[in-house]
Amino acid sequence: MPSKKRKRVAERGTIHPRNKYSEKPPDFGALASLYPSFEPYVFYSSKDGRPRIDWTDYNATRELTRVLLLHDHGLNWWIPDGQLCPTVPNRSNYIHWIEDLLASDIILNTRIDDNVVKGFDIGTGANCIYPLLGASLLGWRFVGSDITDVALEWAERNVRSNPHISELIEIRKVHTREKNPEEEDVHAEQGPDSDDSGGSSNRGVAEIGPSCLPSAKLQSSAQKKYQAPPILLGVVKDEEKFDFCMCNPPFFETMEEAGLNPKTACGGTKEEMVCPGGEQAFIARIIEDSVQLKQCFRWYTSMIGRKSNLKFLIAKLREVGVTVVKTTEFVQGQTCRWGLAWSFVPPSGKILSSQVSESNNKSFMLEGVQRQYSAFHVLQSAESFFCSSGTSCKLDSIQFKIDVIASKDQCESMLTSETEPYGALSYQHNLEMPDVSNQLDSQSIDLHFSISVFQQIPGTLLVKGTLQQKGNPNAGAFSLVFSKLEAVLKAKFCKPKPIAELSRSKQQR
Ligand SMILES: C[S@@+](CC[C@H](N)C(=O)[O-])C[C@H]1O[C@@H](n2cnc3c(N)ncnc32)[C@H](O)[C@@H]1O
């Protein structure tokens, strides 16, 4: 059992240091005594006596969000049954990451208004969480867009319930093209000079058709590739400029894929969770829009649910010639998401294109994992892998994490051990380990690292490794050990790929 202190340190590492909850997580007991509506959802664990809620109860998670927004942010908030319920600490991390991007000098300072930050929240949802947090925490202005009536109505209600910030937030309706094709044609023909956008008042729901930027021709070619409502192009108005856009996209292609985490109940309707092509298509479309809109936004950003999509999208960004790419990880409990940011504003220094990747953090996906195996099985196998070389290895079954301390000899032993030949064909390339002797520094400083396993969607797990010591001369050895672990776990848990697919990927290498 990990000590309380160790556990707190581990939790702190996953939350932004400026997040209200980074030092002190919400105290359910105190909240229950202050808010009678929350009290029925709080119970005391028979194990450690700590106050808890049932994360699989939608009403409990929604009430928690309501009281956290009220108690810690002074916000009045509600959503109707079934609508996606945001977790406040998690959503705050994204806001603070954007705050860091804006404060950095990675790109030239081309801001039009130094006093007010202006953001665009793509798909603000009924919960309108990002504009509410951004406006209340940092005084930012927002346009929040959405396509569904329920999202627009409730986002608007949530804004109106908070008169102290309501002037800062505009909720903007995006027309779904399929519903009104004739009207869309007229807009397209009118081109960039027309202004029939519904005159977006700063309050109220402004209806925006695909009218303005930058030309009807470009817009229609983008539409051919992506048969769905507009996202930025045609929603952003002429002359509008923003410091950033943000997006928590519909991650999934189907509702089956979305029903992934039986441990939490955050709700989420099909309209919120699903879009054709899933998040990859949705964000690819934002990238295409950004190529047209270029410096209308200083930073384009999106949240991403699957690491494999992150790789695809970074490759796409490099193709379209952005000046900067940045990524981050948002980890909360068993959920891991990524943030992707890019810009067309020239870099301020010599950086031409940078993907921030800390070499102390490594990760890989286990895809095609057979149903009988859970994240815990994977964790146990990782533990056996390390223990078999005699390392000191502690498994924390609450955080799904192992802490490992390995000496130089133990690293050598891991790297030279044989990997089971299961699925050998599929993983041959992973077993090609380089010569390790010169990667292990002769001073022989122990490696101290942790391994965590996260469920992504059924059949897909994420394994993360974090080297605890900075500036360790044996960091290269950590890379090798982690690659070896990848080979071992893939050999054990992933279904072998069909032969045809294998020979195709061999030819490509
Ligand atoms: C996953 S929800 C995110 C809601 C909220 N931002 C949050 O973080 O909880 C995705 C939202 O995107 C909206 N959406 C889907 N397509 C859209 C589009 N083309 N433009 C704007 N919003 C869209 C959906 O209606 C839904 O409300």
TrEMBL record:
UniProt GO MF annotations: methyltransferase activity
Known EC number: 2.1.1.-
Any single GO BP term: rRNA base methylation
Recorded GO CC terms: nucleus
Biased composition (Basic and acidic residues): 10-24
Region (Disordered): 1-24, 176-205
Alphabetized InterPro entries for the sequence: METTL16/PsiM, METTL16/RlmF, SAM-dependent_MTases_sf
Keywords associated with the record: Methyltransferase, S-adenosyl-L-methionine, Transferase
One Pfam match: Methyltransf_10
Sites where the protein binds S-adenosyl-L-methionine: R91, G123, D146, N248
Bias (Acidic residues): 181-196
Similarity comment: family membership: Belongs to the methyltransferase superfamily. METTL16/RlmF family.
The protein's name in its UniProt record: U6 small nuclear RNA (adenine-(43)-N(6))-methyltransferase
Provenance organism: Oldenlandia corymbosa var. corymbosa
